[in-house]
């Protein structure tokens, strides 16, 4: 069975329609030599001369005239197949760790939609460990998390800075252990923070254990305890109390984008995502906000 070269078929149809190798080369953005090579290859494949060329005339041979209509149909079918692939709606699932937060989420969604309106974007906010488990099982396309010592295969989106936060009226008496709110299991950020407390010989106790970062944020906002947050996403109504209570300064971390997607369309979406995040990222402020009612969000963009 003979397999035809689409580029060669397109070259033949262009020559046949323009009746000129020079004009065909210009239309295809190539040279006369290149289209001559493609035409000869096609003629070898079909076993017939398709174009008769003299110094003063370019015309179809009898076989070329017979082949022209099927050649056009082949090109049209090829174009429909390519258009169908490029316009098909595709699902893109993105996980964002709750400790990273999502103040950038509206910007990310808007940029992804502008880049590819045929993406159905699913956004999930969850604890980093659960997201990584889902990601490693191939159930989510990409995740945004803080850098982990065991995960160095991602793209760095930018730095992040942390502080101790509590409500303005939170009461702590000298000599008493600091009352901490933590997720269960405790996140890596808080583990780093408690090690800093131990190194500074400051006593602490876990007053509140919640399932996930949102529960911890609620506990801190309610005045039950203090905890560690990125300065970008500190709970509403809280203030940083690092200096007020003489708490240890915390080291910065890096925000990472992890994905194993390799097809061209997905890689372009990931590049857009990283660019939008970096453009939105701002130097740390004294307080931020955690987006409410966005624990799991599924957004069909462009539908």
Automatic annotation (TrEMBL):
GO terms, molecular function: DNA binding; DNA-binding transcription factor activity
Pfam family, one: LysR_substrate
Top-level taxon of origin: Bacteria
Keyword field: DNA-binding, Transcription, Transcription regulation
SUPFAM superfamilies: Periplasmic binding protein-like II, Winged helix' DNA-binding domain
InterPro entries noted in UniProt: LTTR (IPR050176), LysR_HTH_N (IPR000847), LysR_subst-bd (IPR005119), WH-like_DNA-bd_sf (IPR036388), WH_DNA-bd_sf (IPR036390)
Similarity remark: Belongs to the LysR transcriptional regulatory family.
Function comment: NodD regulates the expression of the nodABCFE genes which encode other nodulation proteins. NodD is also a negative regulator of its own expression. Binds flavonoids as inducers.
Name of the featured protein: DNA-binding transcriptional LysR family regulator
């Amino acid at each position: 069975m003979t397999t035809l070269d689409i580029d060669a078929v397109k070259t033949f149809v262009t020559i046949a329609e323009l009746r000129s190798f020079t004009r065909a080369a210009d239309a295809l953005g190539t040279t006369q030599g290149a289209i001559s090579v493609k035409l000869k290859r096609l003629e070898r494949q079909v076993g017939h001369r398709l174009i008769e060329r003299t110094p003063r005339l370019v015309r179809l041979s009898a076989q070329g005239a017979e082949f022209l209509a099927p050649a056009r149909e082949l090109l049209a079918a090829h174009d429909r197949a390519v258009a169908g692939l490029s316009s098909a709606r595709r699902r893109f699932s993105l996980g964002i760790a709750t400790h990273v937060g999502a103040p950038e989420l509206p910007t990310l969604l808007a940029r992804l939609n502008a880049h590819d309106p045929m993406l159905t974007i699913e956004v999930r906010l969850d604890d980093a460990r659960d997201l990584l488990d889902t990601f490693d099982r191939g159930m989510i396309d990409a995740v945004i998390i803080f850098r982990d010592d065991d995960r160095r295969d991602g793209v760095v989106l930018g730095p992040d800075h942390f502080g101790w936060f509590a409500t303005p009226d939170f009461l702590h008496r000298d000599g008493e252990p600091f009352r901490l709110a933590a997720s269960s299991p405790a996140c890596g950020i808080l583990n780093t923070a408690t090690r800093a407390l131990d190194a500074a010989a400051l006593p602490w106790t876990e007053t509140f254990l919640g399932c996930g970062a949102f529960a911890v944020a609620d506990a801190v906002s309610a005045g039950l305890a203090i905890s560690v947050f990125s300065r970008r996403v500190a709970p509403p109504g809280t203030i940083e109390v690092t200096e007020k209570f003489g708490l240890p300064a915390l080291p910065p971390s890096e925000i990472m984008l992890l994905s194993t997607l390799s097809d061209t369309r997905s890689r372009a979406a990931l590049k857009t995502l990283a660019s939008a995040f970096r453009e939105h990222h701002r130097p740390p402020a004294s307080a931020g906000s955690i987006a409410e009612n966005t624990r799991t969000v599924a957004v069909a963009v462009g539908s």
